[in-house]
Predict the structure of Bile acid-sodium symporter.
Amino acid sequence: MRAFRYRPDPFTLALLATVGVASLLPPRGAAAAGFDAATDAAIALLFFLHGARLSRAAILGGVAHWRLHLAILACTFALFPLLGLALKPLAGAVLTPELYAGVLFLCALPSTVQSSIAFTSLAGGNVPAAVCAASASNLLGIFLTPLLAGALLAAHGGLAAPLGAIRDIVLLLLAPFAAGHLLRPWLGGWAERRRRLLRYTDQGTVLLVVYSAFGAAVAAGLWRDTPPAALAGTLVVAALLLVCALASTAWAGQRLGFARADRIALQFCGSKKSLASGVPMAKLLFAGQAGGLGAIVLPMMVFHQLQLIVCAAIAQRYAAHAARAPTPAEAEESADLAD
């Protein structure tokens, strides 16, 4: 088997370039207000198109496989927050308070959709279950993420009014999503035919929000007030968080007696966090905290890249192992020959 080599995708390079531009040329004054309004419009459009693309079957399906879906949701919204709190002694020693708040917010986010499904498919896992679980995670995250973030950050002083934040999220995220889904009979076919094109809408929205968030944070002194050791600590904490999540989901899949395809879906859907949902939510939940918003987003970006690199390697190993494993017919023939 050839060694796995990670090549940065264009979006990763664009994300890094956006951070660089925001660090050198942050928006100020009227430009900052204009970018803020533009990001709100882009976020609403993003969730409107998500609603138009997501089928009713994907939203309501998978009820029969409730044990797997509950396990994935438990990993996403219970395991991760516990891991974030368990890492507090280490995080408190190597991170700034703002960066640790970003780690806690990361732990409250829903799972990814596209990459969870893609890696589950590559590894030979249960793709329909991954579609249902990832979709349910993102819909529930609209309500659960603000509540979890409020509980995790209550003693940290990072989020004062989660109920008010839920109202803002419902208006900017859920309302456009519902409108898009109601218009799916007319827009669904168009959205499906342009799935690749609409992918750039997702990525463009993330880049726009990252530029606005980092630009405001840089103007407020993000890089000046964040020591290099804390940046390195962010990478270490994110890596530990991912390793613990991957190990826990693998162990849980075995303990719960899931089939191989279901264990793969649990591992890839239960160990990921969504940058596409997290960045817009951070903008709404931490509105008015310009200096802290960039630090809130930074752990998300680091974790996002790590999960792509590591999960791509794991998915390839699953696929290679499945290719080497004998089929049931071959195993039966081998048993007959042995007899």
Notes: Residues 327-339 have pLDDT under 50 and may be disordered. The chain is about 80% helix and 0% strand.
